[in-house]
Amino acid sequence: MNQAPPDRHSPGAFLVWGVAVAAYLLAVFHRSSLAVAGLAASERFDISASQLATFTMLQLLVYAGMQVPVGLLVDRFGPRAVMLAGSTVLVLAQTGFGFANSYELAVLARIFVGIGDALTFVCVLRLINAWFAPRQIPLITQITGPIGQIGAIVAAAPMTYALGTLGWTRSYVLAAALSLVAAIAVLIAVRDEPSRRTVRGPALSWSNIKSSLGASWSHPGTRLGFWIHFTTQFSSNGLGLLWGFPFFVRGENTSEGFANLLLTVMVLAVIAAGPLLGWFVGTYQWHRSTLVLVLVWSIMLAWAVVLLWPGDAPGWMLVILVVVAGVGGPASMIGFDLGRTSNPVERLGSATGLINQGGFVASLVLVVAIGIILDAATPGSSAAYTPEAFKLAMSFQYVLWILGLVQIWRYRRKTRARLLRDDPDYWGQISGRGLS
Ligand SMILES: N[C@@H](Cc1c[nH]cn1)C(=O)NCC(=O)O
């Protein structure tokens, strides 16, 4: 007889989750710790703006490229071991970045920051699945994403202060020390499952890898998760990671102070929206992708108003834009919920890794495309980009949205059909509350 799923989390779940989320928050902190150090980095390594942007692009590239291997590692060695490796790599990489005295060494260190960062998030989701009851998982997952994003805020002011008072090397070594504390906490407090400190999956042979990835990817729910992640988060990532500040200041003629305020409001919207979306996803499972469609249309509409506004869009409209675009961040977490309900727990790592590539690939394409369009639309080698060039560059987002929406539409139909085929009673079990 099938056992009913537990209704409550296991004892100790919040301790394990708290430590894992702290390690993830620190990973986001390291990911973002260069954003405020741009000027100091330019001076230290004697580099141009495009060399500086290379750091961000490389980090995104490494992060996205690592997701599938990381997912496989989590399924093989369990989240505890992989998370421990992630925190350790971050300690070494940030220390290396602190001592790097050439651009090449700094790039190498940043690549390892990307690797350590990539090793963390998939583990957190796997731990949530092992420790919480199925009905709690959507909410806890949705809260996790935004809490992690607080790392980006924490990176801003304290890092600026540390760089100003302690100098480059000591600031980055101090930042590295935080992840050393996280590594020790993971070692002591995290267990892969309530009943076992460590779990081990099948050996990583080619045939196992092929069958695990093949099985995850062939389920339309994993693909739907990928395209949801792809379509929802690139707009806020593009603004937050690189282009938001220059777009507001040069493209919309705001003051620098207001541009910073807009980026802060965006992070606050991310944090506030997480629990609301978590509640919705947990309550209306059947309507997960409908919510995503409505949110993506809203983001597209807000951008259309700003880009088509004659002259500069008013400040209040820019506030609406960052709030609506910001909600896309937590909305991308819905992709992971699709991965969860479409894959058995032994394949959750690889499914999560596949899905998590989506948003970061889209963000990378956007960040690069905006740079290329800005350069092409600006005469000579000048970096004095005009508002018109910015409007054209930001319009590139519609290419990604249209591609993403078509794929979401296709795979949501297939996912619904597959879930009902696998379990004809699925609708009966969740009706009134909700599918994809
Ligand atoms: N979508 C993000 C998380 C998020 C939640 N709210 C805003 N952003 C995501 O994919 N996270 C993975 C990671 O490593 O950060």
TrEMBL record:
It is found in: Cell membrane; Lysosome membrane. It catalyses: L-lysyl-glycine(out) = L-lysyl-glycine(in); L-aspartyl-L-lysine(out) = L-aspartyl-L-lysine(in); L-histidyl-glycine(out) = L-histidyl-glycine(in); L-alpha-aminoacyl-L-lysine(out) = L-alpha-aminoacyl-L-lysine(in). One of its GO terms (molecular function) is transmembrane transporter activity. Keywords: Lysosome, Membrane, Transmembrane, Transmembrane helix, Transport. It comes from the Bacteria. PANTHER family: MAJOR FACILITATOR SUPERFAMILY DOMAIN-CONTAINING PROTEIN 1. Lysosomal dipeptide uniporter that selectively exports lysine, arginine or histidine-containing dipeptides with a net positive charge from the lysosome lumen into the cytosol. Could play a role in a specific type of protein O-glycosylation indirectly regulating macrophages migration and tissue invasion. Also essential for liver homeostasis. Belongs to the major facilitator superfamily. This is Lysosomal dipeptide transporter MFSD1. It comes from Aeromicrobium camelliae.
